[in-house]
Amino acid sequence: MQKPTIALVLGDPAGIGPELVAKLLAQEEQRQKANVLIIADKDELHKGMNIAQQQFSYDEITEADLPSYSYKTGVPALISYKCSNQQPFEYGKATKQSGMYILETLKKAVEYAQAGYAQSICFAPLNKQAMHLGGLQYRDELHWFAEQTDFHGFVCELNVVDDIWASRVTSHIPFKDIVSNLSVQGVVDCICLLNQSLIRAGVTHPKIAVQALNPHGGEGGVFGNEEITIIKPAIEQARQKYGIELYGPFPSDTTMHEVKRLNINGVVSMYHDQFSTALKLLGFERGVTVQGGIPIPIATANHGTAYDLHGKNVAVPTAFEAAFNIAVRMGNGVLESE
């Protein structure tokens, strides 16, 4: 059976990324799941191994080797990449140097995936402040990925804990602007994105719940009418036009109960924290973020760089392992669709 190739990057070397990569790839079971193409500064990768006190073997290759390279089972390949800004990394803080490195290695991962050398991307935690210092012109990496892949459709971060996925119609905006940014088409787009992402991850017939916006689901318009004018029409349109199995809209405080009762695979919420709070309580240490809508499957751990933990060998790899496993699942989905 053909294995997907995962392009793996260190994230921010000033944080716990290299340590997490070392702890992941030191596990033979994880290395066996996919071909792994590491795009990293070799010195920083080895520093991560030294911090983690765990080693793994790899083949060092060049970009020119990619068209004809054959992976050995359980042996990652490394393309050693030096940042164009040849300055020493400052550890434990956000800097221009690490921000440039993050953007340049992620750009390489996207290029290799677009060229067919990888089916998905998994990156260790990064820092938005460092990325902005390093030249990021977008508010987050999601919209940067959209620009890199020339994608102009609907995008949103997907949060995943275990087998429950969540998307949101609005995301990084002030709370006061949520209602003005809701529309029937926006809810439909979000439903379709989540449905497609679940299918790509191997869920053959997703069951999706949609959240209401107002307390008690609006109580028939008494507490707000967005359920009547936007959310319910969007659910009906997605059912009729795309055949998606949908439930709701459910009030925020009962959604998780319905998810468990109905064995729901995914939840569409109206704003950033609406369902993700419950999801993080379910398993913060296993949380994954997927860059929803981007043509290339891209996953990462749902936590930050933890600058204060750099070099201490205390970083817990469970969320990063979960992100890698989702990248493998979605990479398999790409292979199956080819």
TrEMBL record:
Q: Which Gene3D superfamilies does the record match to this protein? A: Isopropylmalate Dehydrogenase
List UniProt keywords, sorted A-Z: Metal-binding, NAD, Oxidoreductase
Q: Does the keyword Oxidoreductase apply?
A: yes
SUPFAM superfamilies assigned = Isocitrate/Isopropylmalate dehydrogenase-like (SSF53659)
Q: What class of enzyme is it?
A: oxidoreductase
Q: Which Pfam families match?
A: PdxA
Superkingdom per UniProt: Bacteria
Q: What is its EC number?
A: 1.1.1.262
Q: Name one GO molecular function term.
A: 4-hydroxythreonine-4-phosphate dehydrogenase activity
Q: What is the name attached to this protein's record?
A: 4-hydroxythreonine-4-phosphate dehydrogenase PdxA
